[in-house]
Structures are given as structure tokens and as C-alpha cells.
Amino acid sequence: QVQLVESGGGSVQTGESLTLFCAASGTLRSNYVMNWFRQAPGGEREFVAGIIWRDGETFYADSVKGRFTISRDYGKNTMTLQMNSLKPEDTAVYFCNTGSIIPTTWGPDWGRGTQVTVSS
């Protein structure tokens, strides 16, 4: 089991940037995928970005490709989501997730989430 803690959310204007952080502890296996998912009010949880812990290969949802960048610090067990050119439709609670070995799918371990609000 992996414990995940997100930080870095906040409120910004359209076009601005935010950086989200996820700190992991516990049994984080090298073949796990570390993901960011988000859930807007009244919406379903959707995949945003993922990174294979072992080799750093990345995956993105089409809606964020070119604007968001996921990265990880293997030695510190931390993951970052750099979000640029934010839009109101990016408003959601963002969750850190792991435990799956299949990219873009969620595993059993979740953080509590961090709110991102983008106003026009």
C-alpha cells in the first residue's frame, strides 16, 4: 500500500500556471504508474497525466497535452504536475493515484486531493 499526499492547489486566472506536488510513502514499486486524475463538480473522475515510476515514460490526456507536464523525483518519491495556460475547464479536485501497472488506469491508492480553481 502507498500513502499519497497532494499539495499545491489554489485559485488562479485563465492563462496562469500552478504546480501540484504528490509525496509518496510506503511500498512504491518501480513498475507502478503514478497518475494524476481530476474530478470536476458533478463530473466523473478523469485521467490527466501519468508517469511510469521506473523509467519516467509519460502519458497525457488530450485535453492537457502541451499545457501540463508530469515529472518525478525517483529518489525523493515525489511527483510534480506543472500546469500552464490554465483554463476554467481545468477547475477540479486533482488526485494523486498509484498502484496500477497499466498506463492511464487507476490503481487502488489515492491521495485526498487538492482543489484547483481557474476563473475567467
Give a short summary of the structure.
By secondary structure, the chain is mainly β. The chain has no helices and 11 strands. The chain has strands at 2-7, 10-13, 18-26, 33-39, 46-52, 58-60, 68-73, 78-83, 92-100, 109-110, 114-119.
How would you portray this structure in words?
- The protein is 0% helix and 54% strand.
- With 120 residues, the chain is mainly β.
- The strands form two sheets. Strands 2, 4, 5, 6, 9, 10 and 11 form a seven-stranded mixed sheet that branches. It has a four-stranded antiparallel sheet with strand order 1-3-8-7, with no helix packed on it.
- A hairpin with a 6-residue loop joins strand 4 (33-39) and strand 5 (46-52).
- It starts with a strand and ends with a strand.
- The model has no long low-confidence stretch (mean pLDDT 96).
